[in-house]
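Structure, all three chains, one model.
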Amino acid sequence: MNLPTSILLPAGALPHYRLGVMDVLPWIVALGVFFAFDTYLSLGAQILTMVIFGLSLDLALGFAGITTLGHAAFFGIGAYAAGYWNLHFTAEPLSGLLVAGLAAGAIGLLSGALLLRTHGLALLMLTMVVTVLLHEVANAWGSVTGGADGLSGVMPDALFRVFQFDLFGKTAYLYALGVLFLVFLVVRMVVNSPFGLSLRGVRENARRMHLVGASVHLRLVAAYAISAILAGIAGGLAAQLTRTVSLDRLTFQLSGDILIMLIIGGVGRLYGAFIGIPLYMLMLDRAAAVNPFHWMFFVGLALILLVRFAPGGLLALGDRGWGKGGKQ
Amino acid sequence: MSYALETRGLCKRFGAIQVTSNVDLKIAHGARHALIGPNGAGKTTLVNLCTGMFKPSSGAILLNGSDITAISPQRRVGGGLVRTFQINTLFSGLTVAENLAIPVAQRLGRSWRPWGRTGSDRAVSENVARLLEDLKLLPLAAKKIADLAYGQRRLVEIAIALALEPKVLLLDEPAAGIPNGESGMILDLLERLPQDMSIVFIEHDMNLVFRFAKTISVLVEGAVLVEGSVADIRHDQRVRDVYLGRRHHD
Amino acid sequence: MLSAQFISLLTVLFDGVAFGMILFLISVGLSITMGVMRVVNLAHCGFAMIGGYLTYALTTMAALPFALAVPLAVVGTMIIGAILERTVYSWVYGQSELGQVLMTIGLTFVMIAGANALFGSSIQSIPVPSALRETVQLGPVGLPVYRLFLIAVAAACGVAIWLALEKTEAGAKLRAAVDNAKMAGCIGINVKALFALTFAIGCGFAGLGGALGADIFPLEPFYALHYLVLVLIVVSVGGLGSIKGTLLASLILGLIDTLGRYYLPTGGGIVIYLATLMLLLARPHGLFGRPA
């Protein structure tokens, strides 16, 4: 196929991501927080960790279209893996994250291969069951996980052997920010790549993907596994920063929470996690001190209204809804 | 002599209902073969069987001489057998260019690459651009499917199949839903398809059939009633009876 | 002479059956509505909770007798269910599973907050008439009358639902609407009204389960979430829209859960979840479910 001259596609036709103001803004804000709110850095680090978790879910849910109520399983596995690694092997933090990611990724690959042959309601139920099953296993396997008490005394060593984790959380915050930045780069790269495009094809119309010669199942499993690795890294980070690991990192409720937080910002939009999660967690921090039940009411109402009026989340007010594609 | 696509004694039963009866289809290379017949005759089922979406109850399917009866739909596409759908089956949240980039990337073997922006991939974007230009869809490249008119979507439906550079193209009612007077753009497109591409199409629009087809199979109640050149079929009394409602077996 | 261990085993089995029957009452409504309307309804346990709290309110605050409070609470739950169906649920009928999951989670949160605001966060118990507080001696085994009553009521409901679905015209219409809503509409069945009624009845049974089962499933604001996983497992294992599937799954789960709690504290959950996982992988539609 020889082309005498190149035919140019109009702008916006294919993913051709260019850096814009929106891209730099979140990082400026994050650094600004570091300098301006230095008493809130531990909350800040927690939020950053959850944003990583949210990004991982966005890859599976927003881009590959895998509806899952079981992502906390990977977060929890990552947390326990990093905690165990720290207590029994080495307190070097980066290797802990690596181990966390690999452990979660392995379970993600295995469960994805089994579960992703189903879809819709059956898949939803299966992801939920895997999470509660792993929760019970963690509860029972006390020798490794500490059972109901969990693991404590997870003390990460100095980062790069230079930066100690201080009491004020400065190192922790920048560590979390750095990990978030790297994870974000990875997710952004995958999403804009031909593989990412094929994932969106699966989400939009799996039937057509089959008849275009693509293996839908393998792609779903790959996306799920990558997403699991990233969720595991988030969990490992959480373990290192809070110095504990407990069973509540591996619950169905946490799966629901991260789903809600992501939806508020918007799925499939990369930056949805950056908006929805900090918003939710900041308000939760304020509200939980006052009355947790009022908070539940507010969130519940917001969800109902969101589903009715702004299905794309805050980032997509005015955009189309998220009903299943394929219809013309 | 091998055929581009061949079926031998193909049968399909759903429970007690025989939907496809002993169909022996022989599609020559470069064919322009129409599949016509009343509603419910089993035309789409035949396409579904050929593409692997249904498993035959008995019989065989051969692509370019090799038996593909047991092969998965994905691999049949890889072997050059591509279909379009009667109802638009597009990637509705994506742009027109993206809809074509997916099959192009698949054909070029790049669809597993998790790095490099799709837009920067020269091979993919040039192939997409060329295809869009051929189909006169280039101005619409950045538009989402939801913003297109029905006829334009129908063109994209066929374009997705063409992006795979098929050897055998199965078109399921390409002009479906398009008013008779406006089927021009579809016809245009079909007439410009490569001569060495073998095409089978299901159609009810007889203008399109008589203008574009060289050979025709008439399917009634799952079996082939008669086959032949366009002229033969046009003058066949049995075909007239079928379309005018008189039962062909008394 | 039966050994003490054997007697306690029988008691535990009996408790397991009672647990299973309450689980059945709560779950059967969800199985039918999810099977009929194909809506993922995570707020279903909230309706059981509503039935329980209504009964509590009627017996303690309004001082009504138990026999009157329970039916009134069930009717109340049905009315609330019908109203919600015509409003918030109808918004999500066309949407994907995700939208339905989120809306119903939101609804559940609102129910929990409401329960806390009205009744506080501690466990409330429902006063049961003294006649039902007896124990019946079956040989060496003592069976609480209340639990026998529960089992009897749940069984009767199961039979009633089965008869209604299989033997009545309304039931036939519902089954037709399940199989093909569009066709059913074309032949004159008012599908919307039928769905609204079905939903309300499903909520009613849940409310009954919540009202009667308050000593097995304690009443507190987080009720709506605590038992959600169990109920979802019951309906997916049993198969959507299948009464006998729900009954079988409820009994099996009830027995395993109760036996587990007495004999294998950490094992019971693992057994249930592992079994559910394997079953759903082999049969995604559950034991007796039908594919869409």
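Residues 4-37 of chain C form the longest helix (34 residues).
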